Amino acid sequence: MAAYLLADVEILDPEPYREYQQRALATFEPFGGRYLVRGGRLEALEGDWAPRRLVIIEFPSFEQAKAWYESPAYQEILPIRERYARTNFLTLVEGL
Question: pTM here?
Fold first, then answer.
């Protein structure tokens, strides 16, 4: 069953954050990951959530998504995201 990584990311310093953006795809493609949503226009229609930048990545399975997150390749670039962006949530969910 497919799994989806959902993230709400507020970029604090765009210039150095670009390195993370440029390198991220190469870390999850080997795990079958692909972007479904990466930024773009958004509008909260109900509720209190006010996302800044929504990212959704689809993986073939929950296990593949976890393996990507724990991989040395991703862990190498994770400090870039943590330094130059605020992650309001990062959630992994199984779905259809």
Answer: 0.91
**30: DSSP letter:** G
Task: Determine contact, residues 83/14, Cβ cutoff 8 Å.
Answer: no
Which residue reads 């073939």 in tokens? 60
Cβ(5)–Cβ(87) below 8 Å: no
| Count of domains for the chain | 1
pLDDT per position as a tens digit, 25-47: 999 999 999 999 998 899 889 99
What residue numbers bound the domain in which 7 lies?
3-94
DSSP state of 13: -
Nearest one of 30, 79, 89 to 59, comparing CA atoms:
30
